[in-house]
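idk why but the lab printer keeps eating my pages so im just putting this in chat instead. protein + fe (iii) ion:
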Amino acid sequence: MSPSATITNGTTIIPKLDRPLAFYGTVIHCLSQSEVEIAESALLLVNIHGKISSFHKDVKQDQIEQLLSEQGWSTETVSLTILERGKFMVPGFFDTHNHAPQWTQRGTGRGHLIMDWLNNTTFPHEARFADPDYARKTYASCVDGFLKQGVTTACYYGSLHGEATKILAEICIQKGQRAYVGKCNMNREAPDYYRDASAEESISVTRDFIDHVRKIDPKFELVTPILTPRFAVACDADVLSGLGKIAAEDPTLPIQTHFNETPQEMEITKKLYPEFENESDLYEHFGLLNERSVLAHCIYMDEYDMSRLEHLNCGIAHCPVSNTTSGTFGVAPVREYLRRGMKVGLGTDSGGGFSSSIMDCMRQAFVVSNAKKLSTGGADKSLSFYETFYLATLGGARVCNLDGIVGNFQVGKEFDALEIHTVGKNAGIVTLVEDTDSTAKIFEKFIMSGDDRNIARVFVKGRSVKEC
Ligand code: GUN
Ligand code: FE
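predcted complex ->
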């Protein structure tokens, strides 16, 4: 497989495709939070720039040549994929909350409250990323691992190290993954061996990292730097205000942090910042809460926090696997977020969660929504599998403010997509597809029981990026 992008003379080069792509068969995507379109006999066309140039529905196979010729193409000049029954295209998945350095600790240290888990499991591990060779090896495996599972866009926290985080950004580009990448800011409430030496250093390493990404990917075609205060506990007021200043200077930069994740974390935040009643006021005060914010967890929400995030149009990264397995059982009010039309997507929070699979997150989001239904006496309905699919695709794109570019198959968007196979010798252990199954039933079987084996090919900007 040729590289999907290279860094040549210090800048990103994304080659054009050598031919347009055409997919004929079933195409499934979300038109909105409440509408999933299942188009059978569809013809989806992608130009050499990796953009969707047309999407025809109810096409007979003998009409393909004519529709291609309308683009000036023919079956001779395009790469045509015929999707037989049991195979279909869906948009790529978004992982809106992911700690790249935790790739090599995922699943370990269960059952501890957040601060113990950070101090005993996570910080000693993340400290290893001071070594660029370790970072290069681990991040290559991490990015391959997420691409393999269909994550075409990831919001990554790096470690606190500038050098390792540059390596992560470069690997995303070289492997062709769309990503937000952030140097993690943390200058207190962490051991001496793993914290920024001072607020000044925390901010200057961040600025240097942003400058580096601007150099290697000036238009943020694949990688965008994201401001990443780990959480208020680990950042003093100088770090938060320094990051708020960068956010104000450059309105293209997104921001990510952890928000109302556990009672322990919220209590410590209050002790460290007694002048603020809640985390909304705190982050807003420092200029870190706005439509560019991606807030992980958002579990313990009173009406004030809820309405501030709604009013400020913040994005929410729902992490149902980590919320329910890392020391506490947190049930985020996702139905309420959706009811209010807020931006919600899914995050693996890998390794805060034990799974690196967005498909597991979809299913755990469903489980957690059942718990919420129970605790609200039925007022908050469970999520349907269609809604969990929305969260993993268009919902995630909205959280990242990328829904004008990706998230579904609207003509003009970039082609970030997964080719799904539920039949054939590599179909793994997905619920067996039967002759009598409708396309909707086959799709449900994939969402509820599929895994990476069913993700045959992964495309970002039209480029095939899955390393088998
Ligand atoms: N809060 C601060 N750091 C972390 C982290 O690495 N994972 C999770 N889940 N919560 C955090
Ligand atoms: Fe996290």
